[in-house]
Amino acid sequence: MGLTLALLAVSLAPRVQSNAILAGSFQAAAAALAVWQAVLWLRLRGEPAGRSFQVVLRPQHYLQAAVQLSVFLYWGYFWRPVYDHAWLLVGQLLFAYAFDLLLAWSRRERYTLGFGPFPIIFSTNLFLWFRDDWFYLQFVMLAAGFMGKEFVRWRRDGHSTHIFNPSAFSLGLFSLILLATGTTDLTWGQDIASTLTLAPRIYLFLFLIGLVVMYAFSITLVAGSAAIVLFGSSALYSAVTGVPYFIDSEIPSAVFLGLHLLVTDPSTSPRTPLGKAVFGALYGAGVFALYALLGAMGLPTFYDKLLCVPLLNLSVQQIDRLAAAIRARREAAPRPAGMRAPAPAGLLQANPLHMAVWALFFGAMTVAGATDGRHRGDTVPFWEQACADGRPQACERLIQIETNYCGDNAGWACNELGRHHREGTVVPADPERALEYFAQACELRFQAGCVNLLDPASTVRADPRALDLRLLLREAGPNLLDMPEPMLYARACDHGWSFACRP
Amino acid sequence: MPPETHSPPLSDSQDANSPGVVGPAILAVLVLGAAAWLGLRQAPGDTEPATGAPPTSAAPAAMPGFRADAWFLPDEVELGFVEIAAGPFSMGADPTTDPEAFDNERWSATTAQGTVDLPAYFIGRYEVTVAQFAAFVAATGFPADPQAFDTPPDHPVANVSWPDALAYCRWLDAELRGSPQTPPALAERLGAGWRITLPSEAQWEKAARGIGGQRYPWGEEMRRDRAALQDGATVPVGSSPCPECAHGLLDMSGNVWEWTQSPLQPYPFDEEDRGDLDADALWVMRGGSFTDPARNLRTTTRGGADPGARRPFIGFRVAFSPPRP
Question: Which CATH number fits domain B73-321: 3.90.1640.10, 3.40.50.150, 3.90.1580.10, 3.40.50.10300?
Answer without folding.
Answer: 3.90.1580.10
